[in-house]
Amino acid sequence: MPPKRLGLDASLAVDVGENKSYAEMTLCPVCQDFADTPRETDCSYRHMFCSTCISQVLNARGPCPVCRGNITKVSKLSIMNKNMFDMVKWKCLNHEKRCTWTGSKKELEAHLDNVCPEQEGECPHEGCTAKMRRALLSDHKAVCEHRLIPCDYCTQGIPAGAFDDHPTTCIGFPVECPKKCGVFVARSRVTHHLENDCGEGVTECPMLGCAARMKRKDVAHHVRSFTQHHGMVLSEEVKKLKKQVFHLSHTAVRDHDDCFSVMMTVPNYETTLQALVPGMSFCSEDFSFQGHSFNLILWPRGKGRDNRQAEKTELWLRASDGYEGVLKGVVSIDMVGRQHPATFSFQKHYGEAQPLGQDAHRRRPPNGLTPICQTVLETLRQNATFHNGTLKILLKLTAPALNQQPIVVGSRTCGGPIRRRGVPRPIGGGLVAGVNSAGLSLGTDGANPPAAAQAEAPAAAAAAAAAASASSSSSSSAASSVSLSRPSPY
Ligand SMILES: [Zn+2]
Ligand SMILES: [Zn+2]
Ligand SMILES: [Zn+2]
Ligand SMILES: [Zn+2]
Ligand SMILES: [Zn+2]
Ligand SMILES: [Zn+2]
Ligand SMILES: [Zn+2]
Question: Which of 70, 179, 293, 483 is a good FRET partner for 80, with 20 to 30 A between their CA atoms?
Answer without folding.
Answer: 70
